[in-house]
Amino acid sequence: MVEYFFSICEQIIDQLVMNTDRVFEHEDGSWYFRIRGNATMGPYTTHREANDSRERYVESCRRQSDLAPRWPRWLHLKFWTRRLSGGPAAAPETGPNPTEV
Fold first, then answer.
1. What is the CA radius of gyration of the chain?
2. Coil, helix or strand at residue 68
3. Cis peptide preceding 43, ω within 30 of 0
4. Torsion of CA 52, 54, 57, 61, to 10 degrees
């Protein structure tokens, strides 16, 4: 039972901690790193350069997500300007109701 608990804990920790194997050396001797979606960034001349670049990339993504507004769509200025100008967010206009004509 204890061994099962420790194996579950190791799996959780592996999911929380960014894998260090994201930085890898290609056949041509250049270093690359993988990001979300298994996209590859590189080439870099050294492992350290690739790892530093990966850390900067992750920090940049983290800053962008921290700065992103988390308001409902209807509170955004663009929503109201489109709605008032009759743009794509405006409700469709309907013709006269056939039962009233």
1. 25
2. coil
3. yes
4. -130
Q: CB neighbours of 53 closer than 8 A, spacing ≥ 6? A: 33, 41, 44
Domain residue ranges in the chain: 17-85
**Over the stretch 9-59, which tens digit does the pLDDT of each residue have?**
676 665 555 555 788 899 999 999 988 888 899 999 999 999 999 999 988
The model carries a pTM of 0.47
Task: Give the CA distances from residue 13 to residues 16, 18, 27, in Å, rounded to whole numbers and listed in that order.
Answer: 5, 9, 31
Backbone φ, ψ for residue 25 (5° rounding): -100, 130
Residue 90 main-chain phi, psi, to 5 deg: -75, 150
Query: CB 82: neighbour CB atoms within 10 A?
Result: 14
Beta bridge partners of 39: 35
